[in-house]
Amino acid sequence: LSSRASNVLASLDISTTHEISGVYDGEWRGSGELVSSICPTTGEVLARVKTATPEELHAALERTREAYTHFRNVPAPRRGEILRQIREALASKRDELGALVSLEMGKIRTEGVGEVQEFVDICDYAVGLSRMMNGRVVASERPGHSILEVPNPLGVVAVLSAFNFPVAVYGWNLALSLAAGNATIWKPSPTTPLCSIAVTTIISRVLERNSVPGAVASLVTGGKEVGEAIVESQDVPLVSFTGSEHVGRIVGKNVAFRFGKSILELGGNNASIVMPDADLSLAIPAVFFGAVGTAGQRCTSTRRLYLHRNIADEFLDRLQKMYRTVAPGDPLIDSTLLGPLHTRAACDTYDKTIQHLQTIDANILTGGKRYGHASFSAGNFVEPTIAIPKSVNPKDFIWKTETFAPILNAAVFDDLEQAIEWNNAVPQGLSSSLWTRDLRNLGRWIGPNGSDAGIVNVNVGTSGAEIGAAFGGNKSTGWGRESGGDAWKQYVRWSACTINFSDEAPLAQGVNFPA
Ligand code: NAD
């Protein structure tokens, strides 16, 4: 193993000398299929992980369920105290975990560390929440009666997560779920097992110190089969799934079939619209970050750019200048702005999309190739690309599909109505952003005739969000909401309790049924 990799792994006590257990349910185990964690920058195998057999998964689900029956009796503020300790433990390893994210997923260091910070932030939020998950007292129509709406813990919450946020997405779910009194079982992406093992190790130590069963935060690594078995389990009332539209469609259907609840956080196909009155010195760097940051592998990455005719040439000129400053490199090195794509398969998808752009005679302003330089030949490096397809045909693959790579498709419009129509004319509805200084545009954009996405920004790019607001998207993005806002309400079961304090037993709506 390169010293670059072994230093990162050693800083988190991940042994590289033998196969690593990828299942945790109070104890570390794993005797299933071996998966390799492959570094997208160098192509080297970082470690081999022993995933869950079907029996181990079954046992882990049982232990998680048992852990829940214990944990639901721990008072919520006490659960908050455990979350506070988890927050401290994560913060003390912020840089090391961030580096592991860069090493295994491929995003640059500042973004890797940012992801861990997001987990820390949501823990803070959930500590507060643990004293504020309030129910309600509702006025009853019957004398001497009261109605309470009581939030109770739900049970086992499964978190099935994607490769591109191998730490933060679990964090959003774990923090709210634990505050609400549930136990979680996490199935991470099969290509980022080390991030999940490192995070689970840190959390399990905190649980142990507090004499809480480790299976309150279980981990089962594995592929599609493990995910499918969790989705089908009657012991899992809530499945929180983050991933592609293709898999989300299957997961959503299968969870609904057994009357489970799901939260779906699926693909994005996000647009930025730039009006002629926009401050270009803010808009251009934001589009640059949105399209090139994380090598275009965020669900909120900017994939479509709609420019008003009056500023289009200048905008593209200045944006291309920024693209020219990008040099690919090791995401662990601080000055690197562009890391690799996560897998070889992603490079193939990039190539196919470029080929498609060529067949529809798009003007490729910049990019369009893999980096051929020898030092990158083992890594998955592709050039960030700006293309101008000949027309905006929402039915064309190029506009309606999320290609998980740094490809930005641009088009020119004459009025805001047109741009909003284009913005909304795709299946997905995650993030969107309008650049303007005109209040009238803003009002239109955020209102009923505006963007139909879940995230509707003004003078802020599409990419990246804070934990305070509920995060998620509409339409084929799945309608799920996680993190802040009212998202916690999905992690509890609501009990409507009508209580009679009187000496009479009247029926609702004045129904008369003499005995
Ligand atoms: P993916 O759909 O390939 O995999 C996601 C998870 O599902 C993995 O853990 C995978 O092992 C599991 N899985 C695969 N088949 C399954 C099945 N049949 N049943 C149950 N589980 C199964 O996604 P990916 O390539 O890892 O991630 C990229 C995608 O995730 C992009 O589309 C991106 O936009 C999306 N994403 C969305 C958000 C959001 O918040 N909306 C956030 C991050 C990523």
Sum this structure up briefly:
With 515 residues, the protein is of the alpha/beta class.
Key terms:
single chain, 515 residues, alpha/beta, 7-stranded mixed sheet, 15 helices, globular, binds nicotinamide-adenine-dinucleotide
Q: How would you explain this protein's 3D organization?
A:
- The strands form six sheets. The chain has a seven-stranded mixed β-sheet, sandwiched between helices. A seven-stranded mixed β-sheet has the order 15-16-17-14-13-19-20, sandwiched between helices.
- The chain contains 15 helices and 24 strands.
- The chain is globular and about 80 Å long.
- The model has no long low-confidence stretch (mean pLDDT 97).
- It has helices spanning 3-10, 54-71, 76-92, 94-104, 109-129, 168-179, 193-209, 224-232, 245-257, 280-292, 309-324, 344-359, 397-400, 416-424, 439-446, and strands at residues 20-21, 23-24, 28-29, 34-38, 45-50, 136-139, 145-153, 156-160, 183-187, 217-220, 238-242, 261-265, 270-274, 302-308, 363-366, 385-388, 407-413, 428-429, 431-435, 455-458, 470-471, 474-475, 482-483, 492-500.
- α4 packs across α5 (109-129) and α4 packs antiparallel against α7.
- With 515 residues, the chain is α/β, with parallel strands linked by helices.
- The structure holds nicotinamide-adenine-dinucleotide.
- The site of nicotinamide-adenine-dinucleotide has 30 residues, from α8 and α9.
The ligands bound in this entry are: nicotinamide-adenine-dinucleotide
Helix content: 25-40%
Can you summarize the main beta sheet? 7 strands, mixed
Q: What Rg do the Cα atoms give?
A: 24 Å
Low-confidence stretches: none
| Mean pLDDT reading | 97
Tell me the structural class.
alpha/beta
Number of strands: 24
Q: How many individual helices?
A: 15
What is the rounded distance between the termini?
A: 81 Å
Estimate the global geometry from the Cα principal axes.
Answer: globular
Q: Which strand order spans the largest sheet, edge to edge or round the barrel?
A: 3-2-10-9-8-11-12
> Which percent range describes the beta-strand content?
15-25%
